[in-house]
Amino acid sequence: MRKLAVVLGAILALAMVGAAFADTSVTLNELNNSGISGSAQLIAKGNQTEIIITETGEPSDASEPVHVHTGQCGPTLGGVKYPLKNVEGGSSDTTINASLASLETGGFAINVHQSAANIGTYVACGNIPAVSVTPAATALPKAGGTPVALIVIVGGALVGAGYALRRRAA
Hints:
Layout: H1 2-18, E1 24-30, E2 37-45, E3 48-56, E4 63-70, E5 80-88, E6 91-96, H2 100-103, E7 108-113, E8 122-128, H3 135-138, H4 148-169
Antiparallel strand pairs: 1-2, 1-8, 2-3, 3-6, 4-5, 4-7, 7-8
Helix pairs in contact: 1-4
């Protein structure tokens, strides 16, 4: 029973720490009366990011170029930063050589084009949101000390061990 309580405490602590590293979702909004919209899921993979796009309203035979652009959807949309695999059959899955954190600055958007032949017509676009990192969750306090993640993990294990010892004494 003691081992189970310790394991459960550690799992709870890791789950709490893991929540700080969640993936990012981007809504792809219809442009130019295309009838096409969807979403993109950005999944952190160390120094890379997997980008999974799901669309609705795409013509059945379409092959739509899609890119991560600099800037934001609308007049500030800049050039292509990372090309992605074309959306075909309503989906695209590409892993790029950029960390998720480097994309979450508020300076990037995912833009879907009508076709290679009509690259200038945008059919959907979504801004990758800026995500701020809380320094307290990743750094030591100014006076020194223990990182928050370590405190959570050790604390969870101690709670589990304390519960197991209490149950054993009863």
